[in-house]
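Propose amino acids for all 185 sites.
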């Protein structure tokens, strides 16, 4: 994106984001590499330790942690070399996932910086995990929300719930404001 296009970029409304996420969908598997060494997957993938070893996964982010959800946790992976980060998040439009954006992005960034491979998952790998991956791409890779969504969609169908999309829109607006401030100062 040129600097002129970037300065004209505005966070799209939720309805436009939904249209983007729903167009030209194609079948995707249980786990997909959506960015170099960054995978989005479902619960079955996260619970299949032999698959994780084959994929050379070194870090797992569970966006559906907890006994009432996908109760893996660090003890589940104790016989592997996998580092674990869990978030107890329901896939509910009223749940505020945004307080976890920066910390999760830092966890992913640290893993990738050290040549790790990261699986981010929730129950189906569509909403919570996708939201956290989009936030990472925006925070650490400098992509805007549309660019991040397009990158992930090349490999995986995703559909964050409307509440999460609103939180991503807010993050997008905040990051765009930060970039403009950085350019001015």
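Proposal:
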């Amino acid at each position: 994106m040129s600097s002129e296009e970037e300065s004209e970029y505005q966070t799209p409304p939720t309805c436009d984001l939904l249209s983007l996420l729903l167009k030209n969908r194609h079948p995707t598997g249980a786990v997909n590499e959506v960015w170099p060494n960054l995978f989005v997957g479902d619960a079955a993938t996260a619970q299949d330790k032999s698959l994780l070893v084959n994929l050379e996964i070194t870090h797992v982010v569970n966006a559906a942690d907890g006994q009432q959800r996908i109760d893996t946790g660090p003890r589940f992976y104790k016989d592997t070399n996998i580092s674990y980060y869990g978030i107890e998040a329901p896939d509910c439009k009223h749940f505020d996932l945004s307080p976890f954006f920066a910390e999760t992005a830092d966890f992913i960034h640290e893993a990738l910086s050290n040549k790790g491979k990261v699986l981010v998952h929730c129950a189906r790998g569509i909403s919570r995990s996708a939201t956290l991956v989009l936030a990472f791409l925006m925070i650490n890779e400098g992509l805007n929300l549309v660019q991040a969504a397009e990158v992930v969609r090349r490999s995986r169908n995703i559909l964050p719930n409307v509440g999460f999309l609103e939180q991503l829109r807010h993050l997008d607006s905040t990051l765009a404001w930060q970039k403009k401030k950085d350019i001015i100062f």
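The chain has one domain: 33-184. The radius of gyration is 16 Å.
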